[in-house]
Design brief:
Layout: H1 3-45, E1 51-66, E2 81-95, E3 101-112, E4 115-120, H2 124-133, E5 150-151, E6 156-165, H3 169-172, E7 177-184, E8 190-194, E9 199-200
Parallel strand pairs: 1-9
Antiparallel strand pairs: 1-2, 2-6, 3-4, 3-5, 3-7, 7-8
Amino acid sequence: MSLLQQESREAAGESYTTGTSHVIIATVIAVVLVSAAVTVYIVAGEKPPASTGEVLDVWAHPMHTETSGYDANGASIPKEEIDQLLLFTHVRLHNQGKQPIFLHQVLANLTLPDGIHSSYAATTADFERVFKAYAQLQQWHSPPISPDLTIQPGETKEGTFVCSFRMTKADWETRKGLGYTFNFQYLPALTLEWKGAITER
């Protein structure tokens, strides 16, 4: 083999190496550009949540009751003790979207040492029955908010709902946290945490 042939082969090898490095650089640049384009698309396409809200006030009413020990016919039956906690929450909800939103479920989520205990908000009719059944609560009656509420675009709704937990006052006092879940049809749930004081009445 002549020296001239060796030089031409070396030159060819160098051109392959140079071409490969150009391909790698071009690939890296393409990946960076595509990643940037995807990021811009996602950020530009993000929309604010349709619903926003805030918990304005929370109060609780622990109750311990005992049955009379007699049935409807007057016959003696064992007495039963019932512990219950009524949790009242005053809330404000806002629709910042361009379409009506439909609330269909509200939950209060109470964190106790053994885990999370959840309770659905009572209907507006049951909310009113609570105040008729327990006259001592009447002084704290306020306009209710329905758990199956429709909120129009730009509209804000405010009111109170009640949830009931079967627990003793001692159990209630071991709570570690309180949050709420507002479920809307066809939309992500709105979750709110309450860090403020809870008044007992």
